[in-house]
Amino acid sequence: MEDMANVFKMKVRKPRIKFKPALFLCLVSASIMMYLIIDVPISYPIPRHCQPFQMNAYPFINKLNNTSKTWVQNTVAARKIRKLSSNCLPTQNTLMVYAANNNVDDIDFKQGFNPIEYIAFLYDGKTGTPQELPAKFEKVKRQHHCAIIGNSGILLNSSCGEEIDSNHDFVMRSNFAPIESYMKDVGVKTNLTVINIEKIRQIANILSVGDFKDPVAKMMFRRLKFLNDSVVWFPKGTRFRFYIRTKLQYIAKQLKTKYHLPLKIGYSWRNLEALIKWFWSMQEFYTTTGLNMYTVATTFCDQITLYGFYPFHVDKDSRRIPHHYYEDIPYEYDNKVHSFHEEFDRLKTLHTMGALRLVTDRCNGDKPSTISLPKK
């Protein structure tokens, strides 16, 4: 009896589970491999006939004095850039704008094919290109004069609004920057707006909550309606960046079926940053939205003018310049993500050779002159 009592007094020990690092690493590796096979698109090589632009191939014919009277266009350099960029970034793969007559289910923002999908396409005798997607896409027409509007505070008190609206056939802006209260300086015309990941999340959240009495939501929805039938374009990765593809699908469905806004939504078949960085021989980690817009615009624009591109805190007259024309927030231009000064140097060089017009001063409303230099 005493032995039985001792048995019942014994503590019941919980079974110990030994942590096996090797097994854990195998499970993690298997999960990552499955994710790569299922969801990550295959890496496409640099397109055939794609070559980088040589910055020192043309003479400098302008100074960075941005009044319209003194700038002249080098049409030879502009055409060369358009030819090279069109080989690297063809608009049918780069600026894929969903047509209005698409079924909602076909607006899926599919970007690339994972290895299993790609093998299936090859097995079916297809090529695995965006032209074989069920959705219908609109082509951006060739434009003569294009304007790209950055968000730098250099635009404040510039009086460039009339020039932007009157002298350009196609105007590109970014990230739903406010227009209504700044029309004198930034104009009102908008044909295409580029958005980033943060704006996609914000818009998706606003549409899901549906509380348009909230000041932020009310402001964002007003900006969406203000764009009318312009194009909203997302040029970055859609498959493995925090489920951005799903959010884009949700936004498109809500705008098309619930709110009936005539916005057109576009995206790119591949993430463009690495290719654009290679095209301009850049060393930065990520290219900026501004450089992405300009590079793609060269494929369908004959002449391009940039406004609101100025990565400095003071101008040539020692006037303090806020980071954005619509808000004064602290920002450090020397950072590890974007190389603003390196990009600005590229733009200045392109301006001096006459390939683009870079406005960093007040506008006077005159149209720039144009010349064509003889070919070498």
In short:
This protein is an alpha/beta fold and 376 residues long.
Structural notes for this entry:
This protein has 376 residues and is α/β, with parallel strands linked by helices. The model is unreliable at 371-376 (pLDDT under 50). The longest helix is centred in the first third of the chain and has 18 residues, at 21-38. Helix 8 packs across helix 10 (244-258). The protein is built from 13 helices and eleven strands. It is globular. It is 35% helix and 12% strand. Helix 7 (183-186) links the parallel strand 5 and strand 6. It has a nine-stranded mixed sheet. The protein has a single domain, classed as sialyltransferase cstii, chain A (Alpha-Beta Complex).
Question: What secondary-structure arrangement, pairings included, does this model have?
Answer:
Blueprint: H1 2-9, H2 21-38, E1 72-74, H3 75-88, H4 91-94, E2 96-98, H5 115-123, E3 137-138, E4 143-149, H6 161-166, E5 170-174, H7 183-186, E6 192-194, H8 197-209, H9 215-226, E7 231-234, H10 244-258, E8 264-267, H11 273-279, H12 289-297, E9 301-307, H13 340-352, E10 357-359, E11 369-371
Helix pairs in contact: 8-10
Name of the level-1 CATH class: Alpha Beta
The number of strands is: 11
Quickly count the domains. 1
User: Would you identify the regions where 5 or more consecutive residues have pLDDT less than 50?
Assistant: 371-376
Task: Label this structure with key terms.
two-stranded parallel sheet, 9-stranded mixed sheet, sialyltransferase cstii, chain A, disordered C terminus, 376 residues, 13 helices, alpha/beta
